[in-house]
Amino acid sequence: MNMDDDRDLLLVAIFTTLTVFLWVFFELVKTTKTSTVASPLQKVVSPLTSKIDVDVLEELESRSTYD
Amino acid sequence: MKPEVQPSLNTQFHKYYKRLQPALKKPKNRATTTAVFSFLAISLFALYAIRPTAQTIIYLRREIADKTVLNQQMENKITALIEAQATYETIQDRVGIIEQALPDNPDAVILARQLRNLASVSNASISAMQIPGLPIIAQEATPGARLAAAAAKPLEEYPITMVVTGPYASLEAFLDGLLKMRRITNIDALSMKPTFKLGSSSDILQLNVKLKSYYSRQ
Question: What is the interface pTM, i.e. ipTM, of the complex?
Fold first, then answer.
């Protein structure tokens, strides 16, 4: 084994380690960003307004039906 | 016949060891080999031990945070539903009005009858009315399809074209009644022109109205 071979092997090992660490890092970032709540459940818990516009009902009530 | 002797592993790879020994005796080579194998070991360790463990930890932490938020949202929704139920009970007897204003189905016949009655009350007469072909019951076959259709387009509309004749005051009353009718209709276009009898003019006017009516799919 000459010196060039040594250096090449070391570089390959370093870059392999670096790649693996980046891979692990981005996979962990993806896990952090991904929500664990299913989409249908998110729809179920969407906010609900409990107020009913009574003015509109009164306005409609004052109108004629001509039945 | 002499039996063939299988060489042992040591004997088999001895030549390789012999070739490697001088190289490994050099301190520089030993250091490089140690470093290379250390890096590879760290990589394997990161890939097969650290990654799944860290992933599980992060997933569980995220799940706890998500479930906490979800729990809060559920509680808010339950509170809102209870309030909505109470509000609904107070106006329950007036819910039918909404149905009259915006029915679930086209109810074109009912609308035509209402327009005829309105014309009659206004002392005008409808000489022509045109409504396009409409489904009698505008509902999908399954509840799932109904929900999907309602989400895609909650409000459907259809046009009505009609010709109303009568004196100006009657037509004015008719239009006024149309605007104050409970069933929601929208005037898209209208035009008015006098009707002519042979040789003389009359005070009877002809009103062409293009309406748009709506029905809910929810």
Answer: 0.78
